[in-house]
Input
Amino acid sequence: MSSQPISFYERVNTALDDTSLKTALNRATERFVGNRAGALRALSDANGLRDAARAIRAGALAQLDTLLVQLAERVEARGGHVCWASDAAEAQRYIVNLAQARQVRSIVKSKSMASEEIHLNQALEAAGVQVVETDLGEYIIQLAGETPSHIIAPSIHKTREQVSELFHQHLGVPPTDDIPTMTQTARRALRQRFLQADMGISGVNFGVADEGAVVIVENEGNARLSTSVPRIHVAIMGIERIVAHMEDLGVMLQVLARSATGQKLSVYTSIINGPARPGEADGPEEFHLVLLDNGRSKMLGSQYAEALLCIRCGACLNACPVYQAIGGHAYGGVYSGPIGAVLTPILQPDLPDVYLLPQASSLCGACQEVCPVRIAIPDLLLRHRADAVKAGKAHPIEQAAMSSYKRMMTNPFLYRAAGRAARNGSRLIGRKGRIRRLPPPLHTWSRGRDFPTLPAKSFSEMWEEEN
Amino acid sequence: MTRSQILANLHTSLASNRPWLEAVARSAPHSIPPYVMPAADDLDAQFMAELHAIAGMAYPVADERAALTQIAALLADRPSPQIIAWEVEQIGLAGLAALLDQQGVTLATSDLHGTSRSAHLQNMEPLAICISGVEAGIAESGSLVLRHGPGRPRLASLLAPCHIAILRRSQLVRGLGEALALLRNRYGEEIFTSTSNLTLITGPSRTADIEMTLSLGIHGPPEVHVVLVG
Ligand code: SF4
Output
């Protein structure tokens, strides 16, 4: 990202030096890991549900061309508009032009990683349109002038003290350490924004081809407000985020909620089909669906196609010892954590030292074990590493790199985090013994040094033994 | 044209990877489980326990008269001359119109498509209560399924801090899979013909964005009261 010209290693070092980041990550990832494990344990057949989720997503990708056409046709048949955008610039241009043509002055946005991918806020603000992020976490980081650090919990890196200070500065409320008080402050501040907005912009969790619908999942109600109150709703969807049938949601919504936050279902699931019908009191007069390619259609034919199964639940971030130690921003791209390390080199290939991201992993396998669609993330990371070598980008390990990795892997916080995760059921680190070698490029300094073991058994195997 | 370029890329990509994707697609059945938790004997009890666990309130009542008494009590605690609600016939609870009359409560105009859009929104904003019916209730997650449409505004479960929903015992299903099957059976291909929106509501609005600490009512209602009738 151009706003972060410093190198990956510098970002890692900065993150490792940031003690409040450590506190915040510590408090948050611990909770996520425990919630997820509990929610899955309660299921009658968690593994069956994950297998079905993977199969359903693969089936949809296998016919992505026809499903996208079907989705677009059905949206249009209901009076909605569809924009096919091959890259960020096209998606941006469509939305900015639409806002200008409709004399839009203010926009409320609910969380959308795809909109981060196309840097939409900057483009709209440059065109003189006010954009307010309405998801609490996104609102906090917008006030702070930062970017999300986690797919599900964008402000995971902020402590309550920092949030209180931001609200004090920007909203003029007295400082407090009471979180519900901060929540009510945000509710009041954002309510009028919703009522006055001309346009609402949302992401899309799933496009449903057979109904021509988009599904938006959230806990706060800001997506419902953004898509129900303003005159215009624009939904931005990565082209791969599709299922063939509405019934498929019977699997996908359940694995998404459980993997993301440990809920049985998220608080609100909106299934939206076009603009308001005659006689409907609310809902938008105009509905626009932006289908964002941005490298995905080519990725589908590559050795990284499997990563397109991802449903952005964030479980792999929470399970990842590296993410737990450095947080999301150090990755530099829109998507962080293990899946970010796979996606960013493809979706944002121009980022400086993007080829290093796939190396920021000990390949411990925790990400694949928790992934609800069982993406073989470590394998995809290895393919990236091999590609980087082939392209002549991967150099022998530099001194700077060495010291970053050394700090990361010898950070006591990392081992505490991993230990907690183990007690909470995902058992990142095995019980017996130590390992003597780390995979490349970490191996050069792992020689002669002991590290905790990688899991000897898969998560599912241990789970079956324990239950 | 961008559309044809994207589709052309997809064709090329699928020419190489479709066999692999299809093999993964065949690796497990796509069958949608009607429910996913161990089956409970008593759906009412399961629904209420799940709703309580996520900080919602449930009031089991024997009949419509008792439902009205319960609603009257909720209204009395939150005096509001106007409420945001579905049209009374869409809620389908006999005596509700008379109860609202008797309490001097009227329905706010929620039509955002006419000329007074902004005035209606500002009028609704301070109101204390939303009332809606539901299409179904999901026992194993404590969820409500709302099919919006004419006479069934979305804001009637969203804008005010207290959402009262009327659910019949006969509307309870076990799981999400069953709820989706019920919609398909009832409406076939016409689920969205007269409505642009289906919403599942699972408890009060919540956020954990600050230090993963739960707080209720960030944007939607902090209170969800389900009157379970029959
Ligand atoms: S890769 Fe898997 S675990 Fe990670 S966000 Fe995507 S679906 Fe979730």
